[in-house]
Amino acid sequence: MQGTGGMIGMIAIYAVIIGLVYLFLLRPNSKKKKEEAAMRNNLEIGDEITTIGGIVGRVVAIKDDEDALIIETGSDRVKMKFKKWCISSVDTVKETTPATTEKKGFSLFNRKKKEEE
Known about the structure:
Strand 2 (56-63) and strand 3 form a beta hairpin. This protein is rod-shaped. A five-stranded antiparallel β-sheet has the order 4-3-2-1-5, covered by helices on one side. The chain has helices at residues 2-41, 98-101, 108-116; strands spanning 48-51, 56-63, 68-73, 78-83, 87-90. The chain has three helices and five strands. By secondary structure, the protein is α+β, with helices and mostly antiparallel strands. The protein has two domains: 1-42; 44-93, SH3 type barrels (Roll), CATH 2.30.30. It is 45% helix and 24% strand.
């Protein structure tokens, strides 16, 4: 009977280790990939972007059938075609409503601040 108790303990330890690996490594990575995909899918013509190679430009056309976009860069307006996956960041600041920028959650400080307004 002692052998089965030790076996259950070992299985529990492995389950905890696998759970921690999921929480600290896999989950944040998948969350980051979803955010990047949403950023790339919400691109609009006129957005300023930076590619993973460091090229900065303005989106002039989006080709959804090829999953690509055309950017314009430099003073001589050179146009280049890139795949969407190579977009590192969107540098255009878009207007947001105050309700979307406000973090939701329990905080006494936020509650006092709202009461003062």
